[in-house]
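Module 6 notes. Inverse folding takes a fixed backbone as the condition and produces residue identities as the prediction. Think of it as a translation problem where the source language is geometry and the target language is the twenty amino acids. Below is one complete input and output pair. Work through it position by position during the lab.
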């Protein structure tokens, strides 16, 4: 994980290198000239936006770091399809591994064969990572030595060439390089990009300069270009300058009203509205007869309901799985499109083995314009090479991608209880993995797992078994097994860690009294509860445990949290290790966390801050703050999961032979 100091060093190195180049370069292959007003005579009268034809550079993205993918957009307005290979791009080149400029510093890059239809757009970006995959919307380029196009926030230029002549050109900041063809740039430069963030932590990494579709001109001057704080790569430039994201969900307010769009996408028709935080998720699933892999509509609905209680509207798009045509209520935001993908045995994120990388599947099936506002959920088989049952999922921490892998868990719809387990396991796992993409860890703001007082689906103690409906333990007297729902979940989790437990792991209580199929409000029921925590639980101090306080959310009469697993309420205070993931030897204070108050919905670029445009820093200092770009530099730290307890799989197979 890259430190802020290292980020700053890279910025300084990149800026220093670029400044040196600007002082020594005299055109770098095209003449170093300045932009002289005397060139104006070579420019023909400006056509209106409606009649303007040609192949244009229509957007250039802010690029603050040498190791992230600089990008620009090409727009075909010729009236016919073109082959991208007929063009090349001239700009500065840099080594993305260390920021060293190419020699010469300015290079002409060939473009690959790619058909761009009339009115079509394609993004050209630096191939800074070998895992970046080309598709019909984006092509990643480098030269034979691995150097890539690059510019900085302070200066740069992009030139589109055909047959060695300038087709289009834009220059910004303190850049002085002239176009190859005379008259293709006149007067002052487009102003430099804003820096990474200002003193208030406002993020500008998602900004770009665009030719707005509403006023698309080519005067070969800076007046053709507008700086915007919401970039729209691959789609219409339909978001104006200074647009506000008042609810910090990464979606400009202008796209939440009737008639508004974001990169050409009508989010209003999909359910986005002013005054609510919106969360869009594309759901792809593998072609399989295993019910655990195919999304259950009720599972998605349960996730929607959990978020709705906190004024967050989740919009799933499962294609035509539940509805043949566009139908947001039934999770179809794509019309007749199927989101079913070919079955592969093993899938993961950032694969370093023979498993299929989720990005390979996503890149072939994901509308490029969605990358700024949609997360991507893949319902897959397994994370094990042999396709055997694996952990329930994997996700990027504060990234856009999550994978749910419930294949081989023996989930089915043979009866009502089994159907409930299928729905609840899917729903809870989706919400858990989604939580990682929203910035949550297994302990909320920390990786410490299994804290009984952390009342969240992010906690392994509650993910698959459900949250206790009454965290005070007051339901103990009314449950048929005489156990509170708090203790049922604590017992089952503790039991699952044992290699060969006795029939009564807790003295006087048969293990079968709290198995998932009989657990009160557990996974076999329709009253299964999943939620993120609101942070109101009190501390649980292993040095001074008081079982009568239960999990710190009040205590019912005669209720207790049986932390020492002796089957009764241990009076007073005592020192004891609550079973946890690492079997640590230190006695710690376990704290709750306000998940809901700290969700990071926006998935756009960030350096120190997380949101697009007007934004704030995350409240959690434990979260990574390395540069991130959901369009090009998508690699984020992973929140890996443990494999399910063998006891759980054994129990599922016993129930569902």
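Target side of the pair, the amino acids:
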């Amino acid at each position: 994980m890259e430190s802020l100091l290292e980020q700053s060093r890279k910025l300084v190195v990149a800026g220093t290198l670029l400044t040196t180049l600007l002082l020594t370069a005299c055109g770098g292959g095209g003449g170093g000239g300045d932009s002289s007003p005397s060139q104006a005579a070579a420019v023909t009268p400006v056509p209106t936006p409606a009649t303007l034809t040609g192949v244009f550079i229509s957007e250039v993205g802010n690029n603050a770091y040498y190791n992230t993918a600089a990008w620009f957009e090409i727009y075909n307005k010729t009236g016919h399809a073109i082959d991208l290979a007929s063009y090349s791009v001239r700009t500065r080149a840099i080594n993305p591994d260390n920021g060293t400029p190419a020699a010469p510093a300015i290079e002409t890059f060939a473009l690959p064969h790619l058909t761009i239809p009339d009115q079509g757009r394609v993004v050209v970006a630096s191939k800074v990572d070998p895992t970046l995959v080309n598709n019909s919307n984006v092509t990643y380029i480098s030269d034979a030595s691995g150097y890539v196009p690059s510019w900085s926030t302070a200066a740069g230029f992009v030139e589109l060439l055909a047959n060695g002549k300038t087709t289009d050109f834009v220059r910004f900041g303190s850049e002085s390089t002239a176009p190859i063809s005379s008259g293709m740039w006149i007067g002052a430069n487009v102003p430099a990009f804003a820096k990474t963030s200002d003193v208030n932590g406002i993020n500008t990494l998602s900004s770009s300069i665009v030719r707005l579709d509403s006023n698309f001109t080519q005067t070969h001057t800076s007046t053709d270009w507008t700086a915007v704080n919401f970039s729209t790569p691959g789609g219409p430039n339909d978001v104006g300058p200074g647009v506000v994201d008042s609810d910090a969900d990464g979606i400009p307010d202008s796209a939440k009203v009737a008639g508004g769009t974001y990169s050409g996408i009508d989010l209003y028709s999909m359910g986005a509205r002013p005054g609510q935080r919106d969360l869009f998720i594309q759901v792809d699933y593998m072609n399989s007869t295993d019910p655990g892999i195919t999304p259950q509509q009720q599972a998605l609905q349960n996730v929607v309901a959990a978020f709705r209680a906190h004024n967050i509207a989740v919009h799933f798009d499962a294609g035509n799985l539940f509805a043949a045509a566009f139908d947001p209520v039934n999770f179809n935001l794509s019309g007749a499109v199927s989101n079913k993908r070919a079955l592969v045995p093993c899938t993961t994120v950032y694969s370093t083995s023979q498993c299929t990388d989720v990005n390979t599947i996503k890149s072939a099936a994901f509308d490029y314009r969605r990358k700024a506002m949609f997360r991507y959920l893949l319902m897959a088989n397994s994370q094990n090479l042999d396709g055997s049952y694996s952990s329930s999922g994997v996700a990027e921490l504060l990234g856009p991608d999550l994978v749910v892998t419930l294949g081989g868990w023996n989930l089915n719809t043979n009866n009502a209880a089994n159907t409930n387990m299928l729905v609840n396991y899917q729903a809870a796992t989706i919400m858990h993995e989604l939580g990682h993409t929203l910035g949550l860890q297994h302990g909320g703001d920390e990786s410490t797992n299994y804290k009984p007082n952390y009342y969240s689906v992010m906690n392994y103690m509650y993910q698959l078994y459900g949250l206790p409906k009454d965290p005070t333990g007051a339901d103990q007297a009314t449950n048929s097994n005489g156990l509170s729902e708090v203790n049922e979940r604590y017992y089952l989790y503790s039991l699952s860690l044992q290699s060969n437990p006795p029939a009564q792991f807790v003295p006087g209580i048969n293990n079968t009294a709290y198995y998932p199929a009989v657990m009160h409000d557990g996974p076999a029921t329709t009253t299964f509860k999943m939620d993120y925590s609101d942070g109101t639980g009190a501390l649980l101090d292993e040095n001074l445990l008081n079982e009568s306080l239960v999990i710190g959310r009040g205590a019912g009469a005669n209720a207790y949290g049986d932390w020492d697993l002796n089957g009764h309420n241990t009076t007073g205070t005592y020192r004891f290790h609550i079973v946890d993931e690492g079997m640590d030897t230190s006695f710690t204070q376990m704290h709750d966390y306000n998940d809901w108050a700290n969700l990071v919905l926006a998935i756009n670029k960030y350096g120190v801050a997380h949101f697009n445009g007007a934004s704030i820093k995350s409240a959690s200092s434990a979260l990574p703050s390395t540069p991130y770009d959901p369009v090009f530099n998508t690699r984020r730290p992973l929140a890996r999961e443990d494999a399910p307890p063998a006891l759980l799989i054994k129990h599922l197979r016993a129930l569902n032979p």
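Reference fact for the lab report: The chain has a mean pLDDT of 85.
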